[in-house]
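Title: Prediction job returns without error message
Component: structure pipeline
Severity: low
Priority: P3
Assignee: unassigned

Description:
Job completed but the reporter wants confirmation the result is attached to the right record. Sequence as submitted:
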Amino acid sequence: MPEKTTTPTQTKSGKSKRKISWDVVRAGCVILVMIYHSTFLSVFLHPELAERSIRFPFQVGASMLLVISAYFACVTIGRGGLLRYWWGRMARLFPPFVGAVLLIFGIMHLAAIEGWFLPTWQDLLANVAMLWNWKPDEFFFIDGSHWTVPLQLMGFTAAALLFKSKLGHGTAIRVVLWVAVIVPILQWPIRVGGAPEAYRMIVDGIGAHRWHLFVVGVAIWMWSTRRIGWAHFAALLATCMLGQSLHNYEETPEGLVADWGSTVGVCIGMLVVAATAYGPDWNRVIPDAVGRWVTWFAGISYGVFLVHQTIGYIVSRTLQDIGAGPFLQVMAMLTTGVLLGWALTRLVERPTHTFLMNGYDRLAARRAAGAQQT
């Protein structure tokens, strides 16, 4: 975990400026998620939808978003108070998630499609409580994209606890990283070999099979800030890639089948994130007009990620029922996701984050004033 934060890119005036390269990477990951859902998973989950002429069947974007989250946890955790950092992450992630669940639940009922999953009020509560990873046979996703949210919440909480303790610094954090990536690899044969349900519930509930994504994000930060050397970073990176390859094995009636396309895609993504962190900003090669659009989209990307999938499937099916072809269905799904994501960001994410952070700051100021008086 960080001991100090990195310096942002500087403008000619000396003011800090967010690197456009990170916006490009973040926006690209969300676009990959949307393309995967609109061209492949939509038809896989709902075979009555028309086959897409172009298919992107690789699960890459969402995994890379976890890597980026871990990297920026290291960048930001040293700024200001630790409790304020943790509260800020919770205030940023959880309210729009709840807003997205409520929106999707409402649209699923308003535009119910015969034969498709129609969630009950119990399903709504289970989704808000994020119980799917713990008991997937009992608690069904209202929107499958939401699997990343509890992992991010747990990741930021773990980061804060580690940073506060001795385990988050020096040699100890290096040991923690190695344990976090090696233990899931060692238990993988148990996980895929018919482990007891209680074991599976704990391992999947805490997302152990995806810890390598957080580890590689932290490792990239440590390497890019010269806290670990090239050899140490290469060894950690290679081990995380092994963890990703094991994760992408799927149990089928014929046995375990590897998804090498997704594995290679995520591994390439790890290298892209590493190059982005280590190298210069891309502002010299990206036109300002393109950069402004990318920055805008990156700013609403969390909202887009939260609302595009299930609602997009409903839009696709509705359009197909009135004669629209697969290309129009895909474009409508992408457009709907962007528009609803923008609305969720403007109406829920930003105002609730501001409200919750202002409330925290007022409470902290009152406590500080009270402490001075005593």
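Comment from assignee: result matches the submitted record. The CA atoms of residues 143 and 310 lie 5 Å apart.
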